[in-house]
Specification:
Blueprint: H1 4-16, E1 19-20, E2 23-24, H2 27-44, H3 49-59, H4 64-73, H5 80-91, H6 95-107, H7 120-133, H8 139-153, H9 160-175, H10 190-206, H11 213-224
Antiparallel strand pairs: 1-2
Helix pairs in contact: 1-4, 5-6, 6-7, 6-8, 7-8, 7-9, 8-9, 9-10, 10-11
InterPro entries: Phage_P2_GpM
Organism: Verminephrobacter aporrectodeae subsp. tuberculatae
Protein name: Terminase
């Protein structure tokens, strides 16, 4: 276990790290990379996805001081430890921490390690919308998390299919639709029904096979049945 002095050293080094060709340098960074390598090697030996997630959850506190230092220092140097840990936070459902790191990484135009084969904006969109549509977030958490992802990535390039899935997930979060719960559309709040329709229409516009047509029809009937509508 790290001592308080060692944790302080990590925070200070991460905050003050000087870019070398765009990437963080220094002995402490090398130690963090070595730790990440060992953790990845452990994960590679685990076949169960569930157990991999449990292992990542156990590993993550080791990196907290490094991440806190990097965020506080705001130097913007490419940091493979930071972006890899960001992905692990998303994997285990730590959305607040993952998006905190994600916002920093996007602002400084960081890249993911090659094995992810996506940029950070697309990864945030994919991971959050997939988790929400699978019912891995409750309603309020899904609305808040997906809204934050949409705000962070709105002006960035991403595949239309991925962004369509995000709008679909936001729409479903607004009406409370999950794999285990189909809402009673007749009882939906008018404002939420309107907002959800806007999201589903945008999803359909971006990718016509996104799978929202039936729910759009149900929302349209709900909106037409509202008092004061023709």
């Amino acid at each position: 276990m790290s001592t308080p002095a060692r944790r302080h050293q990590m925070r200070v080094h991460a905050a003050q790290a000087v870019p070398a060709g765009g990437e963080v340098e220094g002995s402490m960074y090398e130690l963090m990379q070595a730790q990440l390598y060992e953790h990845r090697r452990t994960l590679k030996g685990i076949q169960s996805i569930e157990r991999k997630i449990e292992a990542k959850r156990a590993f993550l506190p080791v990196y907290d001081d490094w991440i806190d230092g990097a965020l506080a220092g705001d130097n913007g140097a490419q940091d493979m430890v930071l972006v890899s840990v960001m992905v692990w936070h998303l994997d285990v459902g730590n959305w607040t921490r993952g998006l905190q790191i994600g916002a920093y990484a996007l602002r400084h135009k960081m890249s993911l390690p090659d094995q992810y084969q996506r940029d950070i904006a697309t990864l945030l969109i994919d991971e959050s919308s997939t988790a929400a549509l699978a019912g891995k977030m409750d309603g309020d958490e899904a609305v808040q998390t997906l809204g934050e992802v949409e705000n962070l990535t709105r002006d960035l390039d991403a595949p239309d299919q991925a962004r369509a899935k995000l709008h679909k997930a936001i729409g479903y979060a607004l009406i409370g639709k999950t794999p285990s719960a189909d809402p009673d559309f007749s009882t939906l709040d008018q404002e939420q029904a309107t907002q959800a329709m806007d999201q589903l229409q945008r999803a359909q516009q971006l990718f016509d096979k996104v799978g929202v047509k039936k729910d759009m029809e149900r929302l349209e009937r709900r909106l037409k049945a509202a008092p004061g509508t023709d």
